[in-house]
Amino acid sequence: MLLRSFRTVELLRRISTSSSVSGYRTSPSVLQRYNGVLPHRVTTESLFPSHSSRFCYSLSVNSQNENQHTTLSAPVSSRRVNNRKISRRRKAGKSPSISPAADAVDLALDSVVKIFTVSTSPSYFLPWQNKSQRESMGSGFVISGRKIITNAHVVADHSFVLVRKHGSSIKHRAEVQAVGHECDLAILVVDSEVFWEGMNSLELGDIPFLQEAVAVVGYPQGGDNISVTKGVVSRVEPTQYVHGATQLMAIQIDAAINPGNSGGPAIMGNKVAGVAFQNLSGAENIGYIIPTPVIKHFINGVEECGKYIGFCSMGVSCQPMENGELRSGFQMSSEMTGVLVSKINPLSDAHKILKKDDVILAFDGVPIANDGSVPFRNRERITFDHLVSMKKPDETALVKVLREGKEHEFSITLRPLQPLVPVHQFDQLPSYYIFAGFVFVPLTQPYLHEYGEDWYNTSPRTLCQRALKDLPKKAGQQLVIVSQVLMDDINTGYERLAELQVNKVNGLEVDNLRHLCQLIENCNTEKLRIDLDDESRVIVLNYQSAKIATSLILKRHRIASAISSDLLVEQNPETELASCSAV
């Protein structure tokens, strides 16, 4: 059995808090490097210190003995619910107390399924080939519309998916209808009518209150039959989602969530309170479930747009204003609270409206505290990023701003924003282009992860810093690098020019890998010049000789094509969002 630990997520998450303002970026540094900058995206990492370095997937990976017993068994918590608090909530018209765990079992028997996944991940150092095939197992449950909800990491990079319902020995083929890697959720569909006989759907409920009991149902390692663990809600706050490297609302519970539990429901009463998705490595009985607002946002987005689009971001980086002199310096009265705008993503709508040193006082009429939090339920608080992330693409928000001592109200359109360097690239093959033995690829964090678990320290420093801090200046922009040089007479003397960024081709700035490919393929001069690493290194080639050498190099290294298949198809980077907006 394998429990995949992601210790570097926290390391990467912290570095970017002081500079990242778009997309779903993580960063590695210590909080001392944070310098008071509060990034506003879908995440607010600085407000909620994360232990994501110890977060683990709850995904069970096949070994030779599937039922091998380990110390990762699932103990049932004996902690009791505070009945007085629950009683007061019931009198106040709030959430009722939960039924016994036996009721959860009754509900789950005809709803929770075991998922078997065969997956193959690509190699980013050798982007024309895949790594070894692997098998893993997870859980899922049926919702209305003959759909199965599970975790995205259960089916990531899948090539074949099977599901098996409780009490059956037959596995049925399943198709992945939609995947949201940021929120770690996926929807499966099964065509077999036999599978659906006797299956019941579960209904999504509300966010449970603190100390309310939940029962986690699934197929964790240690056995083949369905398992139920019981626990109570410990806290509700934005948490690092390890798989998608994002920070969204999550519920911490003290029920054991072990490998194989991923995708299973956490049931409260007769409804689903969340989806189990990760635990805290090194801690006993600390698990996390995805709350129903995130689940509903994902499902509704898929139903409206036909595919997963993402979670919205305002595209600004904000600094808390807890210091009195800081508030006074920006002409805030004693009654005012808010956060200071320090950076704005050039691709966001906010870039056209907001200015650096604006103070955001309220979001959609909800006052923002000096630490960036807003009221949430009964005497709880949560970062205002949560309000942003729950917006639909192209939905507007009313933002109250203090600018040079005067209050203004602006309407800002929100949409998902992609970082300059992608944080993940599941379910797709890497892009590449080979010319004269130079392997050109777009810089991605999965590429940096190939340097090992301690990739932040072992990967090229310049590339790592650019991946964490640089912002896109225009849509579709990529950082293109020379990942390696396949040696040949044509490139002798250039072998040390790997791991450098490509800036220009024949004097023209490179926008992305597709653009670089076009510039080289359409070259009409005898010499081809490529400027690297802020133009500090130069490659000059005889163009015709380089084209001939390329064919020989591909044959020598048994590479089928000099160009990845995605670059052969014309694409519009705004097509997906536009198609959703038109719905």
Describe this structure in words.
- The radius of gyration is 25 Å and the shape is flat.
- It contains 15 helices and 31 strands.
- Strands 3, 4, 5, 6, 7, 8, 9 and 10 form an eight-stranded antiparallel sheet that branches. Strands 1, 17, 18, 19, 20, 23 and 24 form a seven-stranded antiparallel sheet that branches.
- Strand 23 and strand 24 (406-414) form a beta hairpin.
- The longest helix is centred in the middle third of the chain and has 14 residues, at 292-305.
- The protein is α+β, with helices and mostly antiparallel strands and 583 residues long.
- 47% of the residues are buried.
For this entry, give a set of tags.
single chain; alpha+beta; eight-stranded antiparallel β-sheet; seven-stranded antiparallel β-sheet; 15 helices; flat; PDZ; serine-type endopeptidase activity; DEGP_PDZ; Peptidase S1 PA clan
Short description:
Helices cover 19% and strands 32% of the residues. The protein has 15 helices and 31 strands. The strands form 5 sheets. Strands 3, 4, 5, 6, 7, 8, 9 and 10 form an 8-stranded antiparallel β-sheet that branches. Strands 1, 17, 18, 19, 20, 23 and 24 form a 7-stranded antiparallel β-sheet that branches.
